[in-house]
Amino acid sequence: MANNETEADLTGATPRRRPKPDVLEVGGRKLKPATLMMGHGYDPALSEGSLKPPIFLTSTFVFESAAAGKRHFEGVTGKRPGGAEGLVYSRFNGPDQEILEDRLSVWEDAEDALTFSSGMSAIATLLLSLVKPGDVIVHSAPLYAATETLIGRILGRFGVTWLDFPAGATPEEINAVIDRAKRQGRVALIYLESPANPTNALVDIQAVAAARDTHFAGVEDRPPVVIDNTFLGPLWQQPLRHGADLVLYSLTKYAGGHSDLVAGGVVGSKAAINPIRAMRNTIGTITDPHSAWMLLRSLETLELRMSRAGENAAKVCAFFRDHPKIDSVGYLGFLEEGSRQADIYRRHCLGAGSTFSLFLKGGERESFAFLDALKIAKLAVSLGGTETLASHPAAMTHLSVPDERKAALGITDSLVRISVGVEDPDDLIADFDQALAQV
Predict the structure, then answer these.
(1) What stretch(es) of the chain map to CATH 3.40.640.10?
(2) Where in the chain are all domains bearing CATH 3.90.1150.10?
(3) pLDDT tens digits, residue range 88-114?
(4) How do 378-379 and 326-330 pair as beta strands?
(5) Alpha-carbon gap, residue 318 to 430, rounded angstroms
(6) Torsion angle of alpha carbons 404, 410, 414, 415, nearest 10°?
(7) CA pair distance 344, 354, nearest whole angstrom
């Protein structure tokens, strides 16, 4: 179409706040995500020439005509797949959210993306859209504690059961669990978390996708492979390239990156995203406009922040590895050459990340003494922010996990989880050194 006005006249659709056509390449060169974050999906001419998208604080949007309103609701209600072609109501869509979703999909070259009010609302909405009473969920272990609670306790009320395999499972182990699950009921999805929270263990996405394809060859309703990629983010791992169908993020973490918002996201193909969009429209778990606007700001510096944090983590972990009071460091840059974890890392990962597990010599007393002595690093849960954070998973984020399961998954009292930020790395090392001296 020649311009937004012509397209709206022909389709009855409200123009979305993106340039048409968008600039995706220059001189035959495909633009990189870091460049596209500065303007992709937004046309200043539609907002009084504002360089940055405004925050659209409105609950509803005016239709050009009754026919346009009908057309939009056909998309919102799922009568026509793909969502609304225009702006309808803030429970369904909005300019800030749509621009954000356009940019979020760029990082993994995904067809579509959705954003949510939190990482857990993204996970819950996805599960509710895929799972039926009596289904079986196959998942890797460990998972974030709230995810385990949602699957085991909440969905368990509706007869949903689960089977798991350890994060570093071999193809044979993965196949065996899927085979058991098929005999138990309809397998709704295969849910992965890699690296695992909080152990940092990697899952072989390619092996899981291959096992799924083998067990459900020729099956129309085959279970999707879903992965929570929060720990590495799209800069250090891109699961869609390795066989995942849907990728989940807590956008609170690296995408937001400043510890000042809570949000979640899902990226994947349009076909895989459509049922999740329909569920989100129904239960209203969309990101609010202000958080979406803040995320647009944060995505502009995502590569810079994550790169600096990754460089810092490598230096900090080198210090920890040689310290006499540290038993081991669960950092992806230290994987044993020739091990299965190193092989998965080589095939799947583009960087070691900046969040890792630290095992002190001792138990809860030593871990707490170390955490309480920190002066620069903050004693707080979460990760992926500009500041360095440290926490004790067994007593905090994974407290609700039964003790015997924590022990089986390696979530011990000696484990401390650290997310390195963008401070000066030598200052961080000095802080960790003095804190270990208090242990």
Answers:
(1) 110-299
(2) 302-436
(3) 999 999 999 999 999 999 999 999 999
(4) unpaired
(5) 13
(6) -120
(7) 18
Length in residues, the chain: 439
Alpha helices (H) along 237-339: 270-283, 289-299, 302-321
User: What does CATH list as the number for 302-436?
Assistant: 3.90.1150.10
User: Which H or E run contains 146?
Assistant: helix 145-149
Residue with tokens 């993965």: 174
Distance CA 174, CA 150 (A): 22
Q: Name residues of the chain where pLDDT drops below 70.
A: 1-21
Scanning the structure block, which residue is given the tokens 């778990």?
285
Contact, 303 vs 33, CB < 8 A?
Answer: yes
Strand ranges across the sheet with 355-360: 326-330, 355-360, 415-419, 389-391, 378-379
As a CATH number, domain 110-299 is 3.40.640.10
- The alpha-helical segments, DSSP class H, found in 26-80 are 33-36, 66-76
Quickly count: other Cβ atoms within 10 Å of residue 275's Cβ. 16
Instruction: Determine the pLDDT at residue 81.
Output: 80
